Amino acid sequence: MLYHFLYPLHEYFTFFNVFRYITFRTIYAILTALIVSFVMGPWIIQKLKAFQIQQIVRDDVPSRHLSKNGTPTMGGGIILAALFLPTLLWVDLTNRYIWIVLLTTLGFGGLGFLDDYRKIKEKNGLGIRARYKFPVQVAMGLASSFILFHLMDHNSRLVFPFFKRVMPDLGNWYILFGMLVIVGTANAVNLTDGLDGLAIGPVLITSATFMLFCYLAGHFRFASYLQIPFVRGSGELTILCGALVGAGLGFLWFNTYPAQVFMGDVGSLALGASLGTIALVTKQEFLLVITGGIFVIEALSVILQVISYKLRKKRVFRMAPLHHHFELKGWAEPKIIVRFWIIGIILGLIAISTLKLR
Known about the structure:
By secondary structure, the protein is mainly alpha-helical. Helix content is 66%, strand content 0%. Helix 2 runs parallel beside helix 9, helix 3 packs antiparallel against helix 9 and helix 11 runs antiparallel to helix 14.
């Protein structure tokens, strides 16, 4: 919005030429998202308390989580407000990739909202049953993947970090693959959201990493030099990733241990879907596995636990997802959170290093 209003003025005042640059707009998208978070955060938390939108702790988690009962939830609304407003202010609104990512984020956020609402209404922490929720996720993921597939001129090749000549072509199967990336990332972030600030830390790291890759993928010379796919128009997603970083930092202000508010499914599903869609646009789907490794590990821990128990009647971990395993081992909650963040930072650096290791 500001871009369309202010950039044309550069013909009369040279100062306004700065609005042409993605880097400039990204910086101010981050700052705007922070301001929106700090302004709206306390107000949203107050409203959540007033309407008794509070966490219902399930009985299948470590007992010390019982102290979190009554903490306001659905704080993902803070993140979404701080993501959408700066993005709409600073991006080129004619960019189609921006709208695909925002609509996918909104769709999964809406489903998360309904899930959270049902948990609160029924006071059991279960929400919408998987057999109803998962088909909706698949439908939204297929729709987003199908549209991207056609917007990107049927570019169905996969790019593998470290291997510049390994690019298998999936053809129309890429649509199914894209759906799996979006849905898988959304649910992986959702599984990670179990401790104060645990999920938002890796989200910040992944968003910052893709902020760099979006910029490079949208710049022909950089993309050619670094031998990564050039995706015309993907540079504008740098601004959206910046807004995501700012929104995440702002939310962490309230979500850090001990949390004043939880993001709920409205936040975790939306954030995961957003990151998955961005990875598809930049053709860096497997890079997401590296930089979002914490999400992958958490999801795999649940899968391994279920498979092991069904086949062997034995558990691999004391409890899944993995962060609960460490809780039952006696680790303090802040220690688990910070150590997971440190691992996430290491994985983010490894992901960035793939730019020179191809």
